[in-house]
């Protein structure tokens, strides 16, 4: 014989288990209710039997007849009382427990089947007892003469069948109520099971477990960050990549975004205070692309893509494109110079031709050499040399101030290149022509960076806004968003414990000042 199988579907398990529980609870409740009702009916029957016995014992004629052992008179009166009260029996005995009356006349003259002692000693007794007439509720009292002398016992019994009939008449209503409760419980269970069936798409419990395992594996294996928030804005789930990209603590679950992230654009995007697709944001030195989608329960799911390396590659591509354009322009200019040189030679002006060659060959080399003397860090020096060539092609003069000096002792050359490169790019983008000056000064292990330009400057009301992620006064190109350079600079400076300020510069435009503590490995005097 095959054992019945437990259903696999969630709704079926719920329906079966809830049905069993509902039936069990209803049965237990009905039983617990019927038990005290049965006891109460027994007590009521015993009390009624006792009252009949007391009323019988109060009849002085019966007492005198019992004292005289006149069983005929006693039997006649007892039977009248029994029929009038619908009792099972009314038995009267003498002081020896010998019956003077009984429902069955043949038992008169015999000793009673239960102990008459307590009643003959003056006590009133109630009990459920088994006797010659079966199980009855009994009341026993002493039978006294007018002078108080005990001359016998009066025992009255009410049939157990009558008690059961009363119980059954009450049980019908109780069971009807229990049945109504059971039907209501089963209907509620069925509705709940059907609702759960729709919500779980009728999948099996084993499938739910497998889905949860697969979901955990998927969330923690993908290379995109994912953060799920509940309706109250608390973090419900954050996968490993999100913890890494956002630098969140391991115990971030259950906390709000504002508790685990500093104020700024990134927190505003995650909480929905700033909405939109593919929103750029910066966390430390990372550039993130954030997308947020609300869920049906009022929460939200946010995905994070790390664009740091892509942003670096795009910047390198921009620099390469700028250098290519500069080389193309230089090639055109070189052709013009060669034509000029050829003309001087054809005119026989050899001295002027030699001077022209010396002047042209030394101009760009002199700029690079001067930068290399002042800026000994090769990364920053190469950056400034390249920027100077690009600036020259735009008609902008990029110069390093005479008092600048940067030793080859940078703790984080990559961060320093990011800071200087973004500040210079920002200054070049602000000019159509003019001058940009870069000043680098070490003070102990602290490095001071200043970038000033002769452009229009930054209005006072915008001097804080320009450092927000995504804010820009220029049209963003198709291949990447703008408004990230200065935001990255601020994040790097704040992470190192430094300071960043913007104000009016000596050239008439803006001046950005950065202080980077512990940026150098060795102590240098300004």
UniProtKB/TrEMBL annotation:
Matches recorded under CDD domains: PAS
Annotated compartments: Cell membrane
UniProt cross-references to SUPFAM superfamilies, sorted A to Z: ATPase domain of HSP90 chaperone/DNA topoisomerase II/histidine kinase (SSF55874), PYP-like sensor domain (PAS domain) (SSF55785), Sensory domain-like (SSF103190), Sporulation response regulatory protein Spo0B (SSF55890)
Topology of this chain in the membrane: Multi-pass membrane protein
Leading EC class: transferase
Keyword set includes Membrane: yes
Keywords: ATP-binding, Cell membrane, Kinase, Membrane, Nucleotide-binding, Phosphoprotein, Transferase, Transmembrane, Transmembrane helix, Two-component regulatory system
TM annotation in the entry: 167-193
Catalyzed reactions: ATP + protein L-histidine = ADP + protein N-phospho-L-histidine
Annotated Pfam families: HATPase_c, PAS, sCache_3_2, SPOB_a
Enzyme Commission number: 2.7.13.3
Protein name: histidine kinase
Naturally occurring in which organism (per UniProt): Kitasatospora paranensis
């Amino acid at each position: 014989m095959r054992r019945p199988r437990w259903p696999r579907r969630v709704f079926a398990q719920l329906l079966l288990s809830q049905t069993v529980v509902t039936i069990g609870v209803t049965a237990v409740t009905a039983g617990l209710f019927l038990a005290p009702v049965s006891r109460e009916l027994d007590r009521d029957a015993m009390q009624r039997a006792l009252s009949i016995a007391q009323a019988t014992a109060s009849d002085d004629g019966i007492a005198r007849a019992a004292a005289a052992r006149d069983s005929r008179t006693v039997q006649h009166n007892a039977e009248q009382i029994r029929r009038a009260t619908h009792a099972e029996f009314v038995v009267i005995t003498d002081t020896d427990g010998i019956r003077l009356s009984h429902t069955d006349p043949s038992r008169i003259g015999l000793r009673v089947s239960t102990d008459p002692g307590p009643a003959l000693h003056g006590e009133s007794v109630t009990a459920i007892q088994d006797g010659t007439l079966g199980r009855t509720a009994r009341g026993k009292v002493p039978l006294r003469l007018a002078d108080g002398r005990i001359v016998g016992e009066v025992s009255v019994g009410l049939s157990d069948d009558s008690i059961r009939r009363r119980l059954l008449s009450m049980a019908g209503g109780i069971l009807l109520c229990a049945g109504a409760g059971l039907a209501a419980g089963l209907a509620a269970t069925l509705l709940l099971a059907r609702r759960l069936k729709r919500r779980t798409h009728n999948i099996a419990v084993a499938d739910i477990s497998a889905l949860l395992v697969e979901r955990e594996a998927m969330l923690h294996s993908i290379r995109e960050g994912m953060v799920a928030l509940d309706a109250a804005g608390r973090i419900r789930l954050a996968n490993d990549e999100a913890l890494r990209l956002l630098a969140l603590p391991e115990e971030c679950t259950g906390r709000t975004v504002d508790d685990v992230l500093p104020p700024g654009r990134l927190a505003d995007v995650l909480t929905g205070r700033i909405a939109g697709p593919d929103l750029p944001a910066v966390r430390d030195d990372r550039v993130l692309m954030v997308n947020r989608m609300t869920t049906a329960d009022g929460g939200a799911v946010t995905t994070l893509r790390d664009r740091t390396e892509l942003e670096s590659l795009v910047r390198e591509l921009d620099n390469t494109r700028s250098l290519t354009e500069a080389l193309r322009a230089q090639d055109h200019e070189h052709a013009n110079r060669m034509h000029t040189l050829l003309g001087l030679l054809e005119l026989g002006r050899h001295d002027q031709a030699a001077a022209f060659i010396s002047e042209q060959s030394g101009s760009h080399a002199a700029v690079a050499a001067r930068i290399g003397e002042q800026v000994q860090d090769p990364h920053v020096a190469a950056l400034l040399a390249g920027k100077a060539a690009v600036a020259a092609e735009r008609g902008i003069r990029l110069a390093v101030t005479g008092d600048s000096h940067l030793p080859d002792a940078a703790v984080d050359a990559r961060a320093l290149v990011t800071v200087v490169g973004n500040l210079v790019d920002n200054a070049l983008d602000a000019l159509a022509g003019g001058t940009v000056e870069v000043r680098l000064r070490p003070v102990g292990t602290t490095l001071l960076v200043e970038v000033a330009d002769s452009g229009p400057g930054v209005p006072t009301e915008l001097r804080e806004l320009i450092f927000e992620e995504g804010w820009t006064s220029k049209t963003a190109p198709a291949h990447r968003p703008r408004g990230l350079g200065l935001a990255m600079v601020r994040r790097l400076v704040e992470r190192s414990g430094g300071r960043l300020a913007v104000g009016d510069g000596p050239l008439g435009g803006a001046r950005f000042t950065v202080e980077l503590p512990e940026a150098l490995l060795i102590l240098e005097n300004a």
